[in-house]
Specification:
Pfam families: ABC_tran
Number of domains: 1
Helix content: 25-40%
Keywords: ATP-binding, Nucleotide-binding, Transport
Number of strands: 10
GO molecular function, one term: transmembrane transporter activity
Shape: globular
Radius of gyration: 18 Å
CATH superfamily: P-loop containing nucleotide triphosphate hydrolases
CATH architecture: 3-Layer(aba) Sandwich
InterPro entries: AAA+_ATPase (IPR003593), ABC_transporter-like_ATP-bd (IPR003439), ABC_transporter-like_CS (IPR017871), ABC_transpr_LolD-like (IPR015854), MacB-like_ATP-bd (IPR017911), P-loop_NTPase (IPR027417)
Order of helices and strands: HEEEHEEHEHHHEHEHEEH
Distance between the termini: 35 Å
Organism: Leucobacter weissii
CATH class: Alpha Beta
Length: 247
Amino acid sequence: MSDVEQGRYAVRALDLTKTYGSGETQVTALDRVGVTFRRGEFTAIMGPSGSGKSTLMHCLAGLDTFDSGSAAIGEQELSGLRDRELTVLRRERIGFVFQAFNLVPTLTAEQNILLPVELAGARVDRAWMSSIVDVLGISERLRHKPSELSGGQQQRVAIARALLSRPEVVFADEPTGNLDSRSGAEVLALLRRSAREMGQTIIMVTHDPLAASYADRVLLLADGRIAGELSDAEPDEILAALGRLGA
């Protein structure tokens, strides 16, 4: 019996198609993509520029619409949800870490971290929060506003916010892009721990083979299609696979 039949997947896409523009300027960002992500699995999505990596992530997370096919978080199909229902789904079941940070400028770092949990009316696990901010090295910066933090520190606040509620799925777009190598390694180790110890599903878009090597699986995209995948791969193996795709 497949993972889908057993309900073990956390995220699924089936024949997912997404185009931009029309006529001669039409671009197919996703071309009948079918893929599942199992619960507790850490997946890195990689591919050449324009391969559809970010588009796939945005469609799976309910941040963008798609032309045909289907996408689901667990058993919940996304295509039939209204905007309000999508908002509730993202708030209660999904964590996001994107390059833009999306921090509220008038709130402190701590208030930004707590915001999604408080909006959901859930209880804050202070012990877990303390563990997260310690690993991310921002314990001393919690009372500072985003304008008083470096780009790397803002990134860590965004990661803490994404992990605090222990969401079913965390979507991460280049989560270590603004971090030094040591901090980046700590963040990636935390994401891997979240998958292995807490059963969270981590879906990360990255161009960095070293970052991708922390994942259980590397999903390769090219021209809007799945071009292959690697399991428990080393950076050199990932780099070679990307080279074959022209990345």
